[in-house]
Amino acid sequence: MKITASDILNAKILIVDDQEPNVLLLEQLLLDSGYTQVTTSMDPLVVCDLNRINRYDVILLDLQMPKMDGFEVMAALKADHSMDYLPVLVLTAQPNHKLQALQAGAKDFISKPFDLVEVKTRIHNMLEVSLLYKKLAKNNLSLEDTVQKRTLELTKTNLLLGQEIDERKKAEASLRETYIQIKQLKDKLQAENIYLQKEVARQFNFDEIIGNSKLLSQVFQNVEQVAPMDATVLLLGETGTGKGVVARAIHSRSSRKTRPLITVDCTTLPASLIESELFGRERGAFTGSDSKQIGRFELADGGTLFLDEIGEMPLEMQAKLLRIIQDGEFERLGSPRTIKVNVRIIAATNRNLIEEVRNGKFREDLYYRLNVFPITLPPLRQRKEDIPLLVNHFVIKFNKKIGKLIDTISQEAHQALLQHQWPGNVRELESAIERAVILSEGNTLQILDRFDSFEKRVPRDDASIKGLVELECEHIAKVLQQTGWRIEGHKGAALLLGLNPSTLRARMRKYGIIRQSN
Predict the structure, then answer these.
(1) Where are the domains of the chain?
(2) Which of left, alpha, beta for 485 (phi over 0: left; psi -120 to 50: alpha)?
(3) What is residue 30's predicted lDDT score, i.e. its pLDDT?
(4) 390-424 pLDDT, tens per residue?
(5) What CA–CA distance (Å, rounded) separates 346 from 336?
(6) How far is 353 from 363, CA to CA, in rounded Å?
(7) What's the topology of domain 231-243+251-371?
(8) CA-to-CA dists, residue 92 to 22, 61, 70, 112, 403, angstroms
(9) Do 231-243+251-371 and 381-511 come out as alike in CATH topology?
């Protein structure tokens, strides 16, 4: 039972949304992708009638509409006895509506605002499943018809030839075999559908992790294995390889996904405050503490605590961290009362912790407590086959952010991206693509300034290095001036530069950038 590309492109699709721009956008996207039978409607009241006439293979259904919302439409479709399968993909911008829609019978969802790559992938995946289901239903009807005919023949045979017992037994055996084949076919199709959904989800996009290389596939497999367990995970890898993204993927696939994921960046917390940040404090615990503070461990109770760059944690704090990992209990600063919490630990580091243990900078017992299930994230230079996918993802992202319409990449840019060794890994690539989108003219991505030296592949002198530093310094200062020296928030410079506010402040200190008075 095989679904061809022609089957998918000729499938019947209905788009239902009360917002005309959304309808036109989705319709044009599908037509441009080669789909031939696309119907649209802005009236949810006519969906059932349209479906009885056309028997759509997939229905893209908005949840928030006047007259009749998406949940009511799905209920009406389910009440239609001619439908035993609901091929609905809901369109929603509300995270809490996604689970409700799936419980109401929807097969998948598409998030608003639309990510065009996600839209095409989910529709293609949904159509494969829907068309397979239709073929199975057709085969079932054929088999049931065969069974009915055989049963009628056997009945007539029994009435007319009651003495031919042997023949009747053979017919009954054949009937049982037919039922077994039907069940096997259904079981096989169900298994294939589950496998297909997993493969499509994993092939190019595992949550926020982009890639399909063998090394990254191994990371995906490790995440799927350990996520449902409650084991402590240690993420190893260079800066910028995506350790934080993998931590979020593990949490979102665990039994704790409805509880918070609390992140602690050990590099940004001052040594004098890290204990109160982790464990909390009572009012008056030390000079300047004029209010009670709930620590990160309490905030993460029932959920997951992500200790990013654990190798930076002061040695004196490591013993206290070891105690809470072992016993699940601690005391707030200034309080004798012991607090018990149930927290899953995910730690990450770009350091070689074994060397840190040998050098006396990291506790050996804490290392063994953290190293229950290590996952090593490969650097980008070892999985360069993922670079085109990452570039496409980031171009789409920054097109939306900056308002560009870049849809192609020059050959020179492609070669520069593949030749560079990416010491900053995916984070460096993301920053480079954002810069390229800003600087590129027209609809073709061009790598300017930053990658000139990479393309030439010759040793760089001090003057060229200084030029790049000056360029970054000037760019940061320019963005700060445009935002009125606002660092954080929706209109802050950190968001426009694609940096964490703490990272931006560190670079301002590094380059001596200070606010200029008018």
Answers:
(1) 10-114, 130-203, 231-243+251-371, 381-511
(2) left
(3) 94
(4) 999 999 999 999 888 998 988 888 888 888 889 98
(5) 28
(6) 9
(7) Rossmann fold (3.40.50)
(8) 12, 9, 10, 6, 23
(9) no
Spatial contact of 280 and 298, defined as CB atoms under 8 Å apart: yes
Q: What top-level class would CATH report for the domain 381-511? A: mainly alpha
Q: Characterise 448 by phi-psi region: left (phi > 0), alpha (psi -120 to 50), beta (else).
A: beta
pTM of the model: 0.49
Mark out the alpha helices in 305-461 (DSSP H runs): 315-327, 353-358, 364-370, 387-402, 411-419, 425-439, 452-456
**DSSP conformation letters of 266-300:** TTTS-TTTHHHHHH-B-TTSSTT--S-B--HHHHT
pLDDT bucket at 452, cuts 50 / 70 / 90? very low
The tens digit of pLDDT for each residue in 165-217 reads 877 788 788 888 888 888 766 755 665 454 444 444 444 445 567 888 999 99
CATH T-level fold of 10-114: Rossmann fold (3.40.50)
Q: Report whether 331 contacts 337 (CB < 8 A).
A: yes
DSSP SS3 for 60: strand
